[in-house]
Structure formats: C-alpha cells, structure tokens
C-alpha cells in the first residue's frame, strides 16, 4: 500500500463516501466508485476491491449485485425481494 499516509488516504476515500451514502440513504454503484478511487488515489482496481471487501466484512457496507448500500437500505431492499421471490418447486 505504500506509506502509512497513503494507506490512510485510501481508507479515508471509502469511509467518506460510505458515510455520505449512509447519511443520504443512497446506493452507490460499485464500478463507478472503483473508477473514482483509481483516478483520485492513483491506485488499482484490485486494491479498491480489497478495501470495499474490508468495509463489507466489518458490516459498514452491504452489497446487492454491484450496488453498495448501508445496512438500513440493505434490509429494506432485502424485504422487498423476499416478498417477491417464490420458492422453487421442482417436479419429478
């Protein structure tokens, strides 16, 4: 990751965006976020995905497909899809 300052700056990039996402109850497109990160921090897509995974593992961010969201939005979205999905019935 380079220097300590560099590592802190990369983590801060995501933390700021995730905090803003939570305060606005919004959803982030993962691909756009990664592109912004790579350009601003002059870093790689792999590093961006590693950092996003770190935030997912701590529970600060949830994912549905390529969309990143707060736990609150995730629970709302999961509630919507669970009422729509039907159990899969297989015939013999």
Give a structural overview.
By secondary structure, this protein is mainly alpha-helical. It has a single domain, classed as Orthogonal Bundle (Arc Repressor Mutant, subunit A). It has helices at 4-24, 30-41, 45-58, 71-84, and strands spanning 27-29, 62-64, 67-69. A 3-stranded antiparallel sheet has the order 1-3-2. A hairpin with a 2-residue loop joins strand 2 (62-64) and strand 3. The longest helix is centred in the N-terminal third of the chain and has 21 residues, at 4-24. The model is unreliable at 83-87 (pLDDT under 50).
CATH topology: Arc Repressor Mutant, subunit A
The rounded Rg comes to 16 Å
Helix content: 55-70%
The class by helix and strand makeup works out as mainly alpha
Low-pLDDT segments: 83-87
Major sheet strand order: 1-3-2
Rough shape? Answer: elongated
Mean pLDDT: 86
Describe the structure in brief:
The chain has 4 helices and 3 strands.
What would the keywords be for this entry?
single chain, mainly alpha, Arc Repressor Mutant, subunit A, 4 helices, about 10% strand
List the helices and strands and how they pair.
Elements: H1 4-24, E1 27-29, H2 30-41, H3 45-58, E2 62-64, E3 67-69, H4 71-84
Antiparallel strand pairs: 1-3, 2-3
